[in-house]
Specification:
Number of helices: 1
Keywords: Membrane, Transmembrane, Transmembrane helix
Number of domains: 1
Organism: Candidatus Jorgensenbacteria bacterium GW2011_GWB1_50_10
Distance between the termini: 98 Å
Number of strands: 3
Low-confidence stretches: none
Protein name: Type 4 fimbrial biogenesis protein PilX N-terminal domain-containing protein
Order of helices and strands: HEEE
Helix content: 40-55%
Length: about 130
Amino acid sequence: MIQNSKFKIKNSQRGQVMILSVMMLGGIMLSGAAIAGLLMLYQIKSANDAVNSAKAIFAADAGLESVTWCILKGAGTSACVDGIVPIVFDDSTVSINAKSQTVGSEIIITSRGYGASGKAVRILETIFETGP
């Protein structure tokens, strides 16, 4: 057996090498577990944000439909309040801010849907041409 004097370990140092090896492996495993836990936390937060985002997009769509109905069918009726049909959601954290404006021969409708009390915002816009 060939031994290099550079890497020769004395009998009294064998226990130190083992303790050092165990501590290094334990540190690596602890770091890996901490990173995995942090990534799991971000995944849970992302899943919750997806639900609020879906609420916001559907609220914005409801705002577009409401303003469109008021412009095309409900003009002059008591159903439209400030150009929008009042919409009540089961979830109190969801709301809408919708408006329309006329620019030349176009009617531009912008609707903002809010989910999670304003933490998730989705904006939809549509343009109608009134004709030549």
